Amino acid sequence: MLIDATPTGEPVLDFILAQMAAEPGTHSTDDWVDFLKHNGQEIHDKALERLIERGILRREESRVLWVFGTRRYPMIENHEQQEVKLRIAALLMSDEIPDARDIVIIGLAQSCGLLEHIFSPDELDRSQARIDQIVRLDLIGQSVRGAIENLRAQTISLASYPS
Question: What average pLDDT score do residues 45-58 get?
Answer without folding.
Answer: 82
